Task: inverse folding
């Protein structure tokens, strides 16, 4: 099993429009961040997590043209507003792309993007909506999920398991619950939101994520969903052993 960080940035990306790099060194390509998304793959199964507005460019960069499923963490724009690009994946497959989310997220997506799930004006649906169960198998990858508080909504955290390997993914949360700690306990890799160093009302700040990583006991923690205050090199120099910043295009192979 392997995981690719397609996008490691927050909702505005880095740099922000107006070429705003903040504290990030524009000369370091690892600071150029698209909206948060990952790809989890085994030899036979490819799962995309979220379809943000940068999805087309991300899949082109990763040289991926076929997926077995997409899972949405929640319905915020930076995680779903590239959904129309599933149309090309539908054309490649010849059948609608299976799309999974928790029931409330799915309801909101179907309301906002009805044509994607139902078709319109003679165009067929491109995505087959299915409720994401707390424990299910997609291809040969086991997917377990947990609801994570994200302001006044919930985002979905996931644990992917195949053979002896495990990957945890937790983005867009502002409280670390006991159920989250249980789900992610002991994962080989924990990819986790660390928006910035200063506290934020709906996202974890760096200290919160580091504390959770220590409690989870992940073998390796990779930070994602970072804003323009989080310079890659400066952050990497101060993080504890076993924790590192992620970057767009980072691919990690597991046994």
Result:
């Amino acid at each position: 099993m392997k995981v690719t960080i397609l996008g490691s940035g927050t909702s505005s990306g880095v740099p922000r429009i107006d070429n705003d790099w903040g504290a990030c060194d524009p000369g370091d390509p690892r600071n150029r961040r698209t909206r948060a998304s990952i790809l989890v793959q085994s030899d036979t199964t490819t799962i995309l997590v979220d379809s943000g507005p940068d999805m087309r460019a991300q899949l082109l960069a990763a040289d991926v043209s076929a997926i077995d499923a997409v899972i949405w963490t929640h319905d915020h724009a930076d995680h779903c507003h590239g959904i129309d690009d599933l149309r090309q994946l539908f054309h490649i497959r010849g059948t609608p792309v299976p799309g999974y989310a928790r029931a409330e997220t799915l309801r909101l997506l179907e309301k906002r993007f009805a044509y994607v799930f139902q078709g319109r004006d003679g165009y067929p649906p491109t995505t087959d909506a299915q409720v994401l169960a707390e424990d299910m198998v997609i291809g040969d990858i086991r997917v377990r999920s947990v609801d994570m508080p994200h302001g006044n909504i919930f985002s979905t955290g996931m644990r992917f398991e195949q053979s002896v390997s495990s990957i945890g993914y937790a983005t867009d949360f502002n409280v670390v619950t006991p159920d989250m700690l249980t789900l992610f306990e002991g994962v080989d890799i924990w990819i986790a939101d660390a928006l910035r160093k200063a506290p934020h009302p709906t996202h974890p700040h760096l200290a919160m994520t580091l504390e959770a990583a220590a409690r989870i006991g992940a073998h390796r923690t990779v930070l994602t969903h970072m804003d323009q205050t989080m310079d890659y090199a400066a952050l990497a120099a101060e993080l504890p052993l076993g924790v590192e910043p992620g970057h767009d295009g980072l691919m990690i192979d597991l046994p």
Remarks:
- Residues 159 and 219 are 14 Å apart (CA to CA).
